[in-house]
Amino acid sequence: MTDSAATVAGYKAAAAKAAIDLVKPGMRLGLGTGTTAAPFVEEVGARVREGLEVICVPTSEATRAHAAALNIPLTTLDDTPHLDLTVDGADEIDDQLRLIKGGGGALLREKIVATASERMVVIADDSKLSKTLGSHPLPIEVVRFGLNPTMLLIQALAAEAGCEGEIRLRRGEGDRPFVTDQGNLIVDCAFPRIAEPEVLAFALARVPGVVEHGLFLGLCDMAIVAGANGVKIYRHPGA
Fold first, then answer.
1. 8 Å CB contact between 22 and 76
2. Is 118 a catalytic residue?
3. Structure confidence at residue 70 as a pLDDT band (50, 70, 90)
4. pLDDT of residue 141
5. Contact assessment for residue 16 and residue 39, using Cβ atoms and an 8 Å cutoff
6. What band does 238 get if pLDDT is binned at 50, 70 and 90?
7. Residues at the annotated binding site for substrate?
8. Which residues are annotated as active site (predicted)?
9. What integer pLDDT is reported at residue 144 of this predicted model?
10. What angle do CA 154, 198, 136 make, to 5 degrees?
């Protein structure tokens, strides 16, 4: 790990430590996915070992395996359909707490779990902050059938919404297509500037082959962001 990577990892750990203070006994928690959410899962595991009683819903099979290895009590949304809190990472956060998520490929489950939660809190390092979304590619989960026409329609409708850029199928190991936990594919859209995320979200919802997109709008209540100047808390303007 390079010095800069170690520094960022330290910021992520600091944000996770701050977020664990939000967890109270008896809570029903959503556990996020990715390199930023993983330290929070570790924090939950440590508190469980100390006697904290919680029940958790993981947002991916990878998080499920991680949490199970830490003996964190797990459930499903079918058995526990209402959650108190979800803590997850983000690829990009704007000043209205609108997010781009899905870099880890779990955006569908992440959005379902976040929507089922009373509160969603994002933890991140300060490189994720952005005035306008678009510095990180926007992931879109799509079905396998009709992939090429789906990508073409995404491109056309996104252009109508003021977003243009390269749309590329995400690759996994051995240059094979990346496959989500649901068996779908992901296309990453390099839109340098998403000036109106709500307009783009509406456009993407019109594409039949789109399962879900990585724009998380109106879901995040708080962001805990760590950087060289310590940990800062950002709250949704309407909160």
1. no
2. no
3. very high
4. 98
5. yes
6. low
7. 33-36, 88-91, 101-104, 128
8. 110 (proton acceptor)
9. 97
10. 65
Task: Provide the CATH number for the domain around residue 153.
Answer: 3.30.70.260
Residue entry with tokens 């998380």? 216
Among 213, 231, 230, which residue's Cα sits nearest to residue 98? 213
Token pair in block for residue 134: 């678009």
- Residues with Cβ within 8 Å of 201's Cβ and at least 6 positions away in sequence, in order, are 213, 215, 217
pLDDT of residue 239: 57
Amino acid letter for position 93: I
186, 180 in Cβ contact below 8 A? yes
Same domain, residue pair 142 and 42: no
DSSP letter for each residue of 162-210: T----EEE-B-GGGPBP--TTS-EEEEE--S--S-HHHHHHHHTT-TTE
Query: Are both 18 and 123 inside the same structural domain?
Result: yes
Mean pLDDT for the chain? 95
Name the pTM for this structure.
Answer: 0.94
Q: Of 43, 110, 141, 212, which is the active-site residue?
A: 110
